[in-house]
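Continuing the series of single-chain predictions for the mutant panel. This is the parent chain; the variants come on the following pages.
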Amino acid sequence: MPLMTGQVLQNRYRIVSLLGQGGMGAVYRAWDTRLQVPVALKEMIPQPGLDTQTLAQLRQQFQQEATVLARLDHPHLVNVTDFFEEGGNAYLVMNFVQGESLANRIEQEGALPEPLVLEWASQLLDALAYCHGQGIIHRDIKPQNVVITPEGRAVLVDFGLVKLWDPSDPRTRTAMRGMGTPEYAPPEQYDAAGHTDPRSDVYGLGATLYHALTGQSPPTATQRIVNPATLSPVRRINPHISPRVEAALARALELQPETRFQNSAEMRSALRDNWPPTTPIQSDTGTQVVARRAPQPSTGTQAATPAPASGRGDLPWKWMIAGGAAILAALLLGGAILGAVALFGSRPPTPQIIPTATLMDPTEAAPEDVSTATDTPPAPSPTPADTPTPPVPSDTPVSEATPPLPPTKASAPTSTPAPTETPTPACPAVTGPFAATWQAEQDRLGCSTNAAHTSWMAQQHFEWGEMFWRKDTDGILAVHDSGVWGGYQNTWHEGDPEYSCPDSAPSESPPTPKRGFGKIWCTYAEVRNGLGWAADGERGFDGTVQDFEQGAIIRTDAGDTYALFDDNTWAQH
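Parent structure:
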């Protein structure tokens, strides 16, 4: 039941208005009667299902994380000022940030000027350096979670997926297994094992800057794994961007953490020559960055978080700012902690068959003055059969066609006949092993983005379909006899348990899928129920693959050819 206007919590916080609400909780604008200031109050409603011991552990974890967040003090981070429990619910109190979200600015204006975006980037990098120095990973950096104040400051909000990080321990310490918003989440964030670190935030910021500079959100990591051509270079979309910034964003968006900038300082150094001259360069010590160029006046009203984000789904609020809230979400929103699902801010989304087009649909709708914090279930994927762990593939994107520049208006008419527009050439004909398949499916596949090439693959047969692993992309394909398929990121690592199903013991007859295949089969009900039991063990072989604008073609060593389309369907040739 929602809180009523005028209701007072803790004899201190008087409810003013509801900013957003969903099935798991709500965000309110409230008045702090003690300090006489407006605040944002995040309520998390309990949900039955967790046992007493788990609740106690999560409560303790939440208190630890909320305490850490409450100690943060940086001009480009929103502040957590209080947290408490009342009436069986948990609450976080945040300062009230006036401004509009970067997402709203992009939606209104499209691609933003490079100097302005770099000014905000400098501020956000300074905030990230401060967070990482405190052992905190944000894990949900996106335009919806960046507020631009009327003074021109960029403020990073919503610590709903925060994790405490120990450099001596590669696994982050938290009970939550959220992934964030797919367009801005790096591949390692889909891994339930928790292999995230500051480089994950580098990816998120890179994706956010990409969106701001191009006006287009980047493709998901899973889309890029299945088809690297989905990520267009920045200058292909916006030719006004400098080559240095384009190169820096390409590195920040590398799929493998080892090839990204290793920290915010490296990313700052790569962009430094492009900083606007009025913006001071900051160190990684958390010193304040002063924005001297104010952006265009905001039309957004005062909000507890960023202005609205265009979201998907059925939860119209999700402005959260508590790292501790991440855990409390699990604690009080219930369930899913053992299922490796984000526990703060939304109900666990139902997994679905995942094509190249999108991995998840975690984002949920937000009201006008409330941005979203997205929780997404992890999308694991398998490794090859009994073969060594594959080398990390390169994910160099293939550019899309350059958008035409607007025509130049002539100063005066002339008698010269108008030139005839040159028609755009059709796709170059595909030759080689997939020529016939492409001819049959050209309308659905589009143009090729690379040549047919050999790739080490793994395959396992199931009752109602197949699973494939591609070494060249380190991606997994689940191909169902029903005519649909899904793409997943490989998150099994050497040294991880061979079997991933917590609810069943390994079996030889029928064989239980193991390693990477097993992680997907055990984690996703639609894969497990759709494919059925494994019919044999996995095997490795040299396969042939070719990527296209709207899908891919793969061929096994037995000659079976599969055309995989971006609309989740496939055809065998």
